[in-house]
Specification:
single chain; 154 residues; mainly alpha; Hypothetical protein af1432; two-stranded antiparallel ribbon; 7 helices
Length: 154
């Protein structure tokens, strides 16, 4: 784990509610918690590359937004456990509500959480660099986790 995740996300990573995400599966056999940490790591790798191109961003918001982007706190595979509507469309709003309740979340971090499912959530277009990066990192990690799961089954 990148040291910046521990530095900027210490309060998140140590919280009891956040650790509950270990009990929920995101993709394949990867927990929601592990997925969020992977997305934070991938986001920082993209950020490091962009920094070489003199494209800077708010590192703290990037990490915290990535850690909290899927902070929905339910088993999305269980229809009775999740809120009404399709998970892919509704979970960013739920994650934002939970994150705002449990942590001090900046406006930029709120954007990252709310906008990370673009283009599925077509009306929530990323409005900052950090949102774009977390959205891309989330898609990449989801792909690797899902394809990795299918590969292991064969």
């Amino acid at each position: 784990m990148d040291h910046r995740i521990k530095r900027y996300g210490k309060d998140i990573l140590k919280s009891e509610n956040y650790r509950k995400m270990r009990d929920f599966i995101q993709h394949g056999n990867v927990s929601v918690l592990r997925h969020c940490v992977r997305v934070a790591n991938a986001s920082l790798k993209i950020e490091r590359f962009l920094k070489k191109l003199h494209i800077n961003m708010d590192e703290k918001a990037l990490v915290r937004g990535a850690l909290l982007h899927d902070y929905f706190l339910y088993d999305w595979h269980n229809k009775e456990a999740r809120p009404h509507g399709l998970h892919g469309f509704t979970h960013p709003k739920t994650a934002l509500k939970n994150a705002s309740r449990d942590y001090k979340v900046s406006e930029r971090e709120k954007k990252i959480i709310r906008q990370h499912m673009f283009p599925l959530t077509i009306t929530k277009i990323p409005t900052c660099r950090e949102s774009w990066v977390v959205s891309m990192a989330d898609k990449w990690c989801s792909l690797v986790e899902t394809v990795g799961m299918r590969k292991k089954k064969k």
